Amino acid sequence: MELADAAEQEARTISSRLTSSHKALRAAGRYAGGLVPFGYRKAPHPSGSGWSLAPDSETAALVGVIVADVHAGLSLIEIAPGLNEAGVPAPRDRHAQLQGRPMGGRRHGRDFERFRWTSGTLSKVLRSPSLMGHRTHGGQTVRDTSGAPVLIGEPLLSDEEFHALQEALLARSNGTRRPRRGTTALLTGIAHCAGCGGRMYFATRKGYVYGVYVCRATARGDVCPAPAAMRSDWLEAYTVNRFREATGMDAERSVSRSTLLESGVRVTVGKGRSGGGPSRLAGPDTSRLTFAFPHVHMGYGN
């Protein structure tokens, strides 16, 4: 028992020492280990003791290109696929390259040869004060006793450029997000994309009373060969009508999401075709839809 207590006390002492050491390194503007911020690489500290960060010649300029794309009006969801197609290493992979280790690894129980850019990954990079050369901890700027930011490397963006970027990201967010309809969209967990088999999610459309269900493969870091999308009112009406036909439910009774989920309903949506003229406004192309229900399968407009 005494040995166990002693071991526990020693572990706490070591943890406290490490915490104090990292805090001191942060205060001194030295790199204390961990994931190197995208756009930087480890470099000797100017004092000759320890490490700091310096712009990474292979990725620093790319940060400027991404920032320009944001100011040009591109969304992060639009920018991420371009980075993946160009073979730009995601932050974790670039960190591994700089450490001389292979890219990829395990995430969420899956093994990846290399990680992919997502809108979430981009958001973390673009919102980090490290772009101004700040030492960060928990995503926030570390400040000295006078309240000034502790610098750990040469800034990739000036303070003015960084704050302009944050305003652009915030304006984009405020301009596209609306209050959610109730709690959860009717077909969340029920509508799936035929191209990749992934879930489709509800998204609002600015200026329209209805929204749209869309494939979100890019947000998951995946590539869908045929991403699907469909008006929410059309897809919901189709699903509810097919469910009533399959169960004989009275038309006056409401159909909830929980009812559809508990019944095992699944609707698969194929990618739409371009063209079609005014006929496209008449309603959904049911040849793109497949309604599956336990012991019942109705697809392609049947």
TrEMBL record:
The keyword Manganese does not apply. Keywords: DNA recombination, DNA-binding. Residues 37-175 form the Recombinase domain. It holds the Pfam family Recombinase. Transmembrane segments: none annotated. PROSITE patterns: RECOMBINASE_DNA_BIND (PS51737). PANTHER family: DNA-INVERTASE FROM LAMBDOID PROPHAGE (PTHR30461), SERINE RECOMBINASE PINE-RELATED (PTHR30461:SF2). This is Recombinase family protein.
